[in-house]
Design goal:
By secondary structure, the protein is α/β, with parallel strands linked by helices. It contains 15 helices and 24 strands. A hairpin with a 3-residue loop joins strand 14 and strand 15. The longest helix has 24 residues. The structure holds coenzyme A. The site of coenzyme A (COA) has 20 residues, from strand 21, helix 13, strand 22 and helix 14.
């Protein structure tokens, strides 16, 4: 039938069109998912002279236009090196950290200003308001292992309330790595550590390190089991377990720069923080930033917080906490009534999101085999998704949904469906689409409660 309708010579074009439709849909889904999210972009200053730098800045402007909020932290190492060299000042690097003598500070401040102004003028060319300011309280790094770091500082506090106001007014704050102490003395800060401090202080969902390298390289390293590799010589996906193992196996041979990326990624994706992903990408590749955000392919190394590590199958020992969690939402009408007996009978279908023995959330996947006109289909119903009100909006619900979708795929289910009264917008972000009661498998169609009138949503797992 398909062949009759579309002769073979038309197929390549058809497939290409199909692929571009899928890509366009994927982009729309990502735009919806990331609208109003806050991203931190740390951009190395040695990219500034590169032919693709204007294109990177234009992509940042596009992201802003798509509703993504951003803070930019410029790296200033190349400009500092240049300024110090022309002033004839030598500074020492200890484990990748610069010792900053007082005489170097004016040149370092000037370098930070120059880089920041360049970024802001690129944004201005695209009608975007970048704004530079000092929103970091800093203190001296002091003496470490006998080395006096002099005017090298560390972040004491990020004045996030001011930054938030600027973001609300549509500005892109550019935070250069110079901090002031309580009496106004300036300190030279690490831009990576500044980016990390901003992620810890604010509700950031993604942190990007944009530099010359495509990602964390693996050539010559011992590779942790399960880490995903890209043929071009860098890791593509790592979870915190892989990162810890990578550091343990290779500490002496990993460069200080990459070690800093890895350690920051571990810190900011820990369960106490909200960053879900850290991306290390090259600014010398056309479109690397938007590719990383708007496609599932990506082009660099992504380190993701492993929320699945906290999810396990429920047991009868969890019954009391599980019921308590569900009851709260049953009372408010968010969840359908489930008796103790029903939960006990299906306890193997439930999962628990647990950290330090506390239940943060739960969910369930019920398998349903349906036979209609000789066709057997394996469906899964998602239900009982609930997050403890004290832990909402920290990615717990997302972790549970991703876990259940993965589980359904592993079990060879072809379609997932769910009934919801108040959370349909949330389920769109996982690819669910609206359906109607008539689309439900036989027995669920019959038991559909028309009085409750829940929305039906479906996710096709075979696409
Ligand atoms: C819906 C629920 C499971 C989300 O869990 P969560 O851990 O808070 O969600 P995540 O952290 O993964 O995602 C948070 C995002 O989802 C959004 N969100 C939360 N509940 C939502 C809802 N009902 N509709 C639309 N968006 C919702 C939040 O605004 C937040 O957006 P942001 O990241 O842009 O700030 C949770 O709010 C809950 O337990 N709700 C009550 C029970 C319920 O309705 N379950 C679904 C029954 S079918």
């Amino acid at each position: 039938m398909f062949r009759e309708k579309f002769p073979p010579e038309h197929l390549p074009r058809l497939y290409a069109e199909q692929a571009s439709v899928i890509t366009i849909r994927e982009v729309f889904d990502y735009i919806r998912r990331f609208k109003n999210h806050l991203f931190v972009l740390k951009i190395e200053d040695d990219l500034i002279g590169h032919a693709l730098f204007p294109s990177l800045m234009k992509d940042i402007i596009r992201l802003h236009d798509a509703g993504i909020r951003m803070i930019i932290i410029p790296g200033t190492r190349a400009a500092i090196e240049r300024n110090l060299k022309s002033a004839g000042i030598f500074t020492e690097l200890v484990n990748g950290v610069r010792v900053t003598p007082g005489e170097a500070m004016p040149h370092i401040k000037l370098a930070a200003m120059e880089v920041t102004e360049t970024l802001i003028s690129h944004m201005a060319a695209g009608n975007l308001n970048g704004i530079m300011g000092n929103w970091i309280k800093a203190r001296s790094l002091g003496v470490c292992d006998g080395v006096d770091f002099q005017y090298t500082g560390e972040v004491e506090k990020i004045r996030s309330e001011i930054i938030l106001k600027l973001l609300d007014q549509d500005f892109i704050p550019v935070i250069h790595p110079i901090g002031l102490n309580s009496v106004g003395d300036a300190y030279n800060l690490s831009s990576n550590m500044t980016a990390s401090a901003v992620c810890m202080a604010m509700d950031v969902s993604k942190l990007f390190f944009i530099g010359a390298n495509k990602g964390i390289g693996y050539t010559g390293l011992s590779i942790p089991k399960g880490a995903q590799l890209h043929a071009d010589g860098f890791f593509s996906n790592l979870d915190p377990g892989h990162v810890q193992e990578l550091i343990r196996l290779n500490r002496p041979v990993i460069s200080p720069q990459e070690m800093e990326y890895l350690e920051i990624a571990l810190a900011v994706t820990s369960p106490n923080n909200r960053v879900k992903r850290v991306h290390i990408i090259s600014g010398r590749e056309e479109g690397s930033l938007i590719k990383e955000i708007f496609s599932s392919i990506g082009g660099g190394t992504m380190i993701y917080s492993n929320r699945h590590a906290h999810i396990r199958k429920a047991t009868l020992d969890d019954l009391a906490e599980l019921m308590q969690l569900l009851e709260g939402y049953i009372k408010t009408g968010n969840l359908v009534m489930r008796t103790r007996e029903e939960i006990v009978n299906y306890i193997d279908s439930y999962c628990i999101y647990e950290i330090d023995k506390a239940v943060y959330g739960c969910g369930a996947l019920f398998e349903i085999t349906s036979q209609e006109s000789d066709k057997v289909s394996k469906y899964g119903e998602i239900g009982a998704i609930a997050v403890n009100p004290s832990y909402k909006s920290r990615g717990v619900g997302q972790g549970i949904m991703e876990y259940l979708i993965r589980l359904a795929k592993k079990r060879g289910l072809t379609r997932l469906f769910l009934l919801t009264t108040r959370a349909s917008d949330w389920f769109y972000s996982f690819g669910f689409v609206n359906a109607c009661p008539g689309d439900l498998p036989g027995q669920r169609r019959e038991s559909y409660n028309r009085h409750r009138n829940s929305r039906v949503m479906m996710l096709n797992l075979c696409e």
